[in-house]
Amino acid sequence: MATKKNIIPKISNYLLLEIIIVVIGLLTLNSTVYTVNEINQVVITELGRPIKTVKKPGLYIKKPFVQKVNRFEDRLLEYDAAARRCVTEDKKYIFLDNYARWRIVDPLLFLKTVRNEVGAYARLDDIIYSVLREEVGKYNMMEIIRTSDREIISTEVTWEEERKREREEIEKIEAGREKIMRDVTKKSDTVTRQYGIEIIDVRITRADLPKANTDAVFSRMKAERNRISNRYLSEGEGERAKILGEMEKELAQIRSEAYRKAQEIKGQADARATATYAQAYEQDPDFFNFLKTLETYRETLTQKTLIVVPLESKFFKYLIPETTPID
């Protein structure tokens, strides 16, 4: 019995030792092997000191326990800033919301300078706002709000000329928001490279005016648009008068030509009628006189015509026979 009792503790001790060895082996293996995927990049540090960078996906080995795997994103990251006040060249205040797309291009330098994404956001906030404020201060308000002086293709024949005149009256856009943001992106990227960061793009998402200036700006914009619309109305009235004048001129020409044609046709008809009358008179003078008298009756005698002539007048010889007694 004593022998059996001694064997059981020995077995338990062996099992516990095996378990400890397995656990230590697994921990060692886990601390030795690491993977890198497509969306990550790794910096290996040894006792806190960076020693190498791994970007290619795959399975790798490191020194257990003394070396540490520091993972960083290899994808595009977004930075979204809160609205901040800037001053334009024409001394107007404007609140700008902006965002940026960026990526870590040098993870080793990134780790040494900003450590992590939290530190990177703090640096980006200072750098981008500083550059944005500097660039906005070089241009007037319209440059920030509008993008460019690009032409708008239209089917209207005179639209291009009207747009040209309008641009001459409204503030000239020399750069536009697109160029300003390209400059902000380029200058910000130049600064962030020392932190292992590449700025891909910086954009303004919203531009607001202080409430105190909103009414004044809107009034000015309204006045400018009213002035331009009044000019268009005036030009439209001028074109209308011009078109009506040309139309009246053409109409007068058409009427004149029509009258000339009518008179020509009437003259030809009168000549033929005169010839016909002459021929009829030569053939039968009495019948000719009869027809001419009937024609005169038709032209002069209507329902409301009042003629006072003696009954003996030859004018009524076909209406009142000579045998009719006169009272």
Explain how this protein is built.
The protein is α+β, with helices and mostly antiparallel strands and 327 residues long. It is 55% helix and 18% strand. The chain has helices at residues 2-32, 107-113, 117-136, 141-145, 159-169, 177-192, 211-283, 285-300; strands at 33-36, 40-46, 49-54, 58-61, 67-73, 77-80, 84-87, 93-104, 197-208. The strands form 3 sheets. Strands 6, 7, 8 and 9 form a 4-stranded antiparallel beta sheet that branches. A 3-stranded antiparallel beta sheet has the order 3-2-5, with helices on one face. Helix 7 (211-283) runs antiparallel to helix 8.
Q: Gist?
A:
The chain is of the alpha+beta class. 55% of the residues lie in helices and 18% in strands. It has helices at residues 2-32, 107-113, 117-136, 141-145, 159-169, 177-192, 211-283, 285-300, and strands spanning 33-36, 40-46, 49-54, 58-61, 67-73, 77-80, 84-87, 93-104, 197-208.
Terminal Cα separation, in Å? 185 Å
Instruction: Report the biggest beta sheet as strand number plus sense, adding barrel if it closes.
Output: 4 strands, antiparallel
Give the helix tally.
Answer: 8
Q: State the order of secondary-structure elements, H for helix, E for strand.
A: HEEEEEEEEHHHHHEHH
CATH superfamily of the largest domain: Band 7 domain
Alpha-carbon Rg, integer: 52 Å
Question: Low-confidence spans: pLDDT under 50, at least 5 residues?
Answer: 151-159
User: What structural class do helix, strand and pairing data support?
Assistant: alpha+beta
The level 1 CATH classification of the largest domain is Alpha Beta
Instruction: State which percent range the strand residues make up.
Output: 15-25%
- The tally of domains stands at 3
pLDDT averaged over residues: 82
Helix content: 40-55%
CATH architecture assignment name of the largest domain? 2-Layer Sandwich
Q: Total strand count, please?
A: 9
CATH topology name of the largest domain, in short, is Tetrahydropterin Synthase, Chain A
Shape: rod-shaped
